[in-house]
Design brief:
The structure is a homodimer of 387-residue chains. Chain A is of the alpha/beta class and 387 residues long. Helices cover 41% and strands 17% of the residues of chain A. Chain A has helices at residues 56-61, 72-77, 81-87, 90-93, 106-111, 140-148, 166-189, 210-223, 239-250, 267-275, 285-291, 323-327, 330-338, 342-369, 372-383, and strands at residues 14-19, 26-32, 35-39, 41-43, 68-70, 100-102, 114-118, 123-126, 133-136, 152-154, 199-201, 203-204, 228-230, 259-261, 280-282, 294-297, 300-303. In chain A, the strands form five sheets. A five-stranded parallel β-sheet of chain A has the order 4-15-14-13-12.
Chain lengths: 387, 387
């Protein structure tokens, strides 16, 4: 019998604390073994056990990240489950005391690995590091995530490419649903490794096909897990199609459970999705684009490499989300990024993540105050500017 | 007439607070416009206006760097003096409130730049960044350092290669001395740009030739500047020759002025040089080698990439010099370095610099307590171990 005997498998991990009257936006609280998470929330991506370029103490003290994301694919390949197990799980390995969500590895198998082959059994793939062959199944990615000890685990899914035709997407959704059944069954039959409750989120797929998204959302809702996710968006489709898909799916997913939109997106994408009832986000954009000189500021989006900043000694952001944003000037950061200095990546990443975290915290505040809609409209306008 | 009218040109910037009875080691205090510096001191290298991989707040709060070094060559090429001037000097540009020492660019012209040509006038060289042609003279490197606003400036010198024959070394020393005369004259005739006193240190050269080192040390001592430096060591010669050269030079350089050994070295090199009367050090080793996985610890020197650390979850150092040294494990840092993660460079650099800073602080304490010699012997033994 399972270690966690609660027959509900954690579906009461979430409480809605306030709902916007004009939109579908809501503010909530996620309860996890490593602490509560106010929602909407943005999760910095900590691929291989590190949010690139940021010390853990800066994640808590300067950015105030409530939860971070780890990639099962990366962690499984390096350092490997044996090391993570010997360390006592990922929290201990990376000295991180707050919650962690891990994806299932499905997305990376399709975006990073070589020679992948899908069967009913699972996904065979080659490591992008050393070419070695591996198999991910709905069951073994749960085993891996049990060892990692993430607070929230994700089911193995196929993230179909964009564009793809209806025929392919339908077949892909069927495979994802087959894997979902096995994942849920295996999840219920197994225990956490680290004596702490873990949640499993299923993932809605179906590309931009409304009929498939509906079927998938119903399937996911029926699984009765503690929270649910929407995958396969922000993969190249127009933003309008993404928003339409979110509306369809969120009309079906239960109101009383958290909804996680995977891998999205720009600040505007996030605000539009919060309006449509999304609670959780992750995206590499603030760190990856930051390393390349893209800054999200209260004055709009900036490419710090542009010549216009060469002698602009004003702070990175007049409304600084983090201490680095007021300490350093645009001209200094431009110099660091142009020179390929590590410190440029560090400062951009801290600033951008702090910007994202403050944005979702502000959205939460506005939802609870009852004036989300007008605030969001003004923010979308501001954040669409490029300077 | 010069802005700073003090006819001594700052020679009273230094006070010796304690001298070891058994050795030439001494503890002192350097007074600069940006604060006092207890000696012996180690200066982290901040080449292009950044100590690679380290936020300025971590340099002060975690490492407690009392002064950092900037490279005139790098700063002149990028961002360039125009930008540094517009920023109000380097302190302001990089948001660093503590003292800065800048080298003259001489060393980089020989180690980095292409197509260099030496004349009486100065050094013509090609930028390693874009191949553009430039000229450094004894005068214009002072102009550049005036704009940078460093607390301590260095004279232009030729750092002769090792090995080189006596004939070449003699010619090289003559050129360095010719440049020194011009530098001192120009220094006395010009004012600081930022209304703050700046000191100029001349540099003793002469390779490993005792006669040339004596001549050069006498020449440098006669210049009557506030402090003096020894260059051209740790360029490939055996450590014993370096120590012998230091002894010869320090026998001639004035006791009441600080002595700066440029670009040295390992922790053992530093202790041996402190014993021989050196007060100031800089070296890229703790950061550059740190980025590559070499850790200086209280248990000896570690190559963190070695397989033996793969599942060693003990802290980086049982006697942690910085907070990262106790927060993170050897296995975690190994994983980061092996994976090429930025955070690996950050943690190694903070740890190693904190280790160096603590080592010289401890040396100072032991000198003042009067038991430097025995402590040094035990430390040299410890620090020579490789694990």
């Amino acid at each position: 019998m399972s270690y966690i005997c609660a027959a509900n498998f954690g579906q009461y991990m979430f409480e809605v604390q306030g709902s916007d009257r004009e939109t579908k936006a809501r503010a909530g609280l996620l309860h996890t073994p490593h602490g509560d998470i106010p929602t909407p929330v943005f999760m910095p991506v900590g691929t291989g056990g590190t949010v690139k370029g940021i010390l853990q103490r800066d994640l808590t003290d300067d950015i105030d990240a409530k939860i971070i994301l780890g990639n099962t694919y990366h962690l499984y390949l390096r350092p490997g489950t044996e090391i993570i197990k010997a360390a006592g799980g990922l929290h201990s390995f990376m000295s991180w005391g707050r919650p962690i969500l891990t994806d299932s590895g499905g997305y990376q198998v399709f975006s990073l690995a070589g020679n992948r082959k899908l069967t009913d059994e699972g996904a065979v793939f080659k490591s992008h590091i050393d070419g070695s062959r591996h198999l991910f199944t709905p069951e073994n990615v749960i085993d891996i995530q049990r060892i990692i000890g993430s607070d929230i685990m994700m089911v193995l899914d196929e993230c179909a490419p964009f564009p793809c035709d209806h025929r392919y997407a339908k077949k892909s959704v069927a495979l994802t649903h087959h894997w979902l059944d096995r994942a849920v069954q295996y999840f219920k039959a197994t225990d956490p490794v680290w004596n702490k409750e873990q949640f499993l989120f299923p993932i809605v797929q179906g590309g931009v096909f409304d009929d498939l998204r509906k079927i998938s959302a119903e399937k996911v809702a029926e699984a009765g897990m503690a929270g649910n996710a929407i995958g396969g968006l922000s993969v190249g489709e127009p933003a309008d199609e993404m928003y339409r898909t979110i509306e369809i799916v969120n009309g079906i997913l239960p109101q009383d459970k958290p909804r996680y939109l995977m891998g999205v997106g720009t600040p505007v994408n996030i605000l539009e999705s919060i309006e449509r009832g999304i609670d959780m986000f992750d995206c590499v954009m603030p760190t990856r684009n930051g390393r390349n000189g893209m800054l999200f500021t209260s004055e709009g989006i900036i490419n710090i490499k542009n010549r216009q900043w060469i002698d602009d000694f004003s702070p990175l952001d007049p409304d600084p989300p983090s201490s680095v944003s007021s300490t350093y000037s645009k001209a200094y950061l431009r110099h660091l990024i142009i020179s390929g200095e590590i410190l440029g990546s560090q400062i951009s990443s801290i600033h951008n993540l702090a910007f994202y975290l403050r944005l979702v915290a502000k959205a939460r505040e506005k939802i609870l105050e009852g004036n989300f809609k007008s605030w969001k409209e003004s923010m979308v306008k501001k954040l669409s500017e490029r300077r």
